[in-house]
User: What shape does this take?
Amino acid sequence: MKLTVKMEELGMLGGAVFLLIKLEAAWYFYLLLFIGPDISMLGYLAGNRAGAFCYNLFHHKGIAVWVMISGLITGNQLLLVSGIILFGHSSMDRLLGYGLKYETGFQFTHLG
Assistant: This one.
């Protein structure tokens, strides 16, 4: 992955951490930022297709933004923080080279 793309993902991860700080999120939300969405990998116990679906559901930035906006519109801080966690975690994963998964297996991602 090109350095420019990695820097962009680092910036988005930093933005997510910044928002959590501004919202005065509890310490355990930072832990969730780094490991929480990876529970979706349990979907691979049901096969590659189910695994890819579950993983992509928790690592899709569009879904994360939708959850954040839902939290803003409804005034629900838990939804807002959850969206920030999903977005930040997705950025962290892409920074490390992990992308959205194809049904052919865990190692096959949209990043190539």
Observations:
- Helices lie at 3-22, 27-35, 48-59, 61-74, 77-95.
